[in-house]
TrEMBL record:
HAMAP family: Succ_CoA_beta. It catalyses: GTP + succinate + CoA = succinyl-CoA + GDP + phosphate; succinate + ATP + CoA = succinyl-CoA + ADP + phosphate. Binds 1 Mg(2+) ion per subunit. Its cofactor is Mg(2+). The gene is sucC. Keywords: ATP-binding, Ligase, Magnesium, Metal-binding, Nucleotide-binding, Tricarboxylic acid cycle. NCBIfam families: PRK00696.1 (NF001913), sucCoAbeta (TIGR01016). This is Succinate--CoA ligase [ADP-forming] subunit beta. Mg(2+) binds at residues 206, 220. InterPro entries: ATP-grasp (IPR011761), ATP-grasp_succ-CoA_synth-type (IPR013650), ATP_grasp_subdomain_1 (IPR013815), Succ-CoA_synthase_bsu_CS (IPR017866), SUCC_ACL_C (IPR005811), Succ_CoA_ligase-like_bsu (IPR005809), Succinyl-CoA_synth-like (IPR016102). Belongs to the succinate/malate CoA ligase beta subunit family. It comes from Rubritalea tangerina. ATP binds at residues 46, 53-55, 109, 114.
Length: 395
C-alpha cells in the first residue's frame, strides 16, 4: 500500500522528521485558502499522486509540471485549477498517467544541497538497508546506472537496530559535518523508527535538502507499506486511496484474491502463487501473453471463483481464459461446479480452457465434458497452454 505526500507529512510530524508545513486542497478555493494559511510568498504547490517524477511531468491538457512555486495565494489557486481534475503523466506513471484529485500547498524551502535518502527492506541480506546519495533531486535511477559509486548503502542489523556509528558514517559520506551532521543523524534515526513502527517496506526522501541556514529537511516523501502487516495499523489503512489503485486489484482484494493486472490477452485463474507463476510462464512459452496474475488461494470457494471471473471479464483486453487448478484442499468436482456456474451466470463468450488435477479429478472433468457450455478440457499444463493460445488466435 502507498500513501500521498501530504499524508506522509503527518507521519513525519508524528515521528520527528523535519519537513516544511503543508496543507492539502481538493479545489482551487481550498488551495488559495491553504496558501493564505501558510502565509509568506515562498510557496510550493504539488500534485498529489502515487508516483514520483511530478516535477518533470506534463499534464494531458498540455500544462507543464506537477510542482510549481506560486508567489501569492491567488496564483496558488490559479495553478491548482490547472492541476486538479487533470491527468499527470510522469516517467513513473506510464502513458495512462494519474488523475490528480488533490494538491498540496507547502512552504517553499531555500535549497543549498539536494541529497537522496531511502530505507528499504533488502532481501539479499534479510535486513533493512539505508540508501543515500549526494546526488539527490534528480533521477536516482540514472545516478545508479551511470555513477553507481555515488550510491551509498548502510545495512542495519535487524535485531541490534541502527547504531550511532552507522549514522556518523552516513553523514560523513554525504559530506555533512558539525550541526548538519547532528540534524541529519537525528532525522535518519527518527525515520528509521518510523520505518520499523509502521511496517514500511520502503520510505524514500528525494530530495532531502540542506538549506542555506544549515537546516536538514525532507522535501518529498514516498512510502510503501507491507500489505501483510496492515492489520496492525488501522490508522494507516485509513489513508488508503483506492482511486490511485487499479480498480481490478481493489475489487480482488475484497475477495482475498491475489490479483495483478498485466498487458496480455490470456487471463489465468489459478490456485497457488507458484502454480500461477508457472502458468504465466508456460503461456508465454507457447507464444501467448498473460493478462493477469490471479491466485484464488488454496481453499478457493465458489464465490471467489465467481468474483475472479467477473474481475477477469471486466478487462477489455481479455480474449481467452485459462483455468489451472490443483485440487488439493479443494476437490476438483466442486471447483468444476463453481467454474461452470460462473461461466453460465456471466454468459461467457470467449474461449475457456480448464485444466484440473488432484482429488476427484475424474469427476471434475466429467462435469466439464458433459456441460453444454463451450469449455475446453485439458489434460496437463502444456496441453492447456497450447489450447488456450490456439483458441485465442483462431477466435
Ligand atoms: P517529484 O519527485 O515527484 O518530482 P518533488 O517533491 O521531489 O517531486 O519535487 C520536485 C522538485 O521540486 C524537488 O527536487 C525540489 O527541488 C523542488 N521542491 C519540492 N518541494 C519543495 C519545497 N517544499 N521547497 C522547495 N523546493 C521544493
Ligand atoms: Mg522527488
Amino acid at each position: 500500500m502507498n500513501i500521498h505526500e501530504y499524508q506522509a507529512k503527518e507521519l513525519f510530524e508524528k515521528f520527528g522528521v523535519p519537513s516544511p508545513k503543508g496543507i492539502v486542497a481538493g479545489t482551487a478555493e481550498e488551495a488559495e485558502a491553504a496558501a493564505k494559511a501558510i502565509g509568506g510568498d515562498d510557496l510550493v504547490i504539488k500534485a498529489q499522486v502515487h508516483a514520483g517524477g511530478r516535477g518533470k511531468g506534463t499534464f494531458k491538457n498540455g500544462f507543464k509540471g506537477g510542482v510549481h512555486f506560486p508567489k501569492t495565494p491567488a496564483e496558488a489557486g490559479e495553478l491548482a485549477s490547472q492541476m486538479i481534475g487533470q491527468t499527470l503523466v510522469t516517467h513513473q506513471t506510464g502513458e495512462a498517467g494519474r488523475l490528480v484529485n488533490k494538491v498540496m500547498i507547502a512552504e517553499s524551502a531555500d535549497i543549498e544541497r539536494e541529497l537522496y535518502l531511502a530505507i528499504l527492506m533488502d532481501r539479499g541480506s534479510a535486513s533493512p538497508v539505508i540508501v543515500a546519495s549526494t546526488e539527490g533531486g534528480m533521477d536516482i535511477e540514472e545516478v545508479a546506472e551511470k555513477t553507481p559509486e555515488k550510491i551509498i548503502r548502510q545495512f542495519v542489523h535487524p535485531l541490534a537496530g541502527l547504531q550511532p556509528y552507522e549514522l556518523r558514517k552516513l553523514a560523513a559520506a554525504l559530506e555533512l559535518a558539525g550541526d548538519q551532521a547532528k540534524q541529519f543523524a537525528k532525522l535518519v534515526k527518527n525515520l528509521f523508527k518510523l520505518f520499523i513502527a509502521c511496517d514500511c517496506d520502503m520510505v524514500e526522501i528525494n530530495p532531502l535538502v540542506v538549506t542555506p541556514a544549515g537546516d536538514v529537511l525532507a522535501l518529498d516523501a514516498k512510502f510503501g507499506f507491507d500489505d501483510n502487516a496492515l492489520y496492525r495499523h488501522p490508522e494507516i489503512v485509513e489513508m488508503r486511496d483506492t482511486t490511485e489503485e487499479d480498480p481490478r486489484e481493489v475489487e480482488a482484494s475484497k475477495f482475498d484474491l491475489n490479483y495483478i493486472g498485466l498487458d496480455g490477452n490470456i487471463a489465468c485463474l489459478v490456485n497457488g502463487a507458484g502454480l500461477a507463476m508457472a502458468t504465466m510462464d508456460i503461456i508465454k512459452h507457447c507464444g501467448g501473453e498473460p493478462a493477469n496474475f490471479l491466485d484464488v488461494g488454496g481453499g478457493a470457494t465458489k464465490e471467489q471463483v465467481s468474483a475472479a471471473f467477473k474481475i477477469i471479464l471486466s478487462d477489455p483486453n481479455v480474449e481467452g481464459i485459462l483455468v489451472n487448478i490443483f485440487g488439493g484442499i479443494m476437490q476438483c468436482d466442486i471447483i468444476a461446479e463453481g467454474i461452470l456456474a460462473a461461466a453460465a451466470e456471466l454468459e461467457l463468450t470467449i474461449p475457456l480452457v480448464v485444466r484440473l488435477e488432484g482429488t476427484n479429478v475424474a469427476l471434475g472433468k466429467k462435469l466439464i465434458e458433459e456441460s453444454d457450455l463451450a469449455v475446453i478440457s485439458a489434460d496437463n499444463l502444456n496441453d492447456a497452454a497450447q489450447k488456450i493460445v490456439e483458441a485465442v488466435k483462431t477466435a
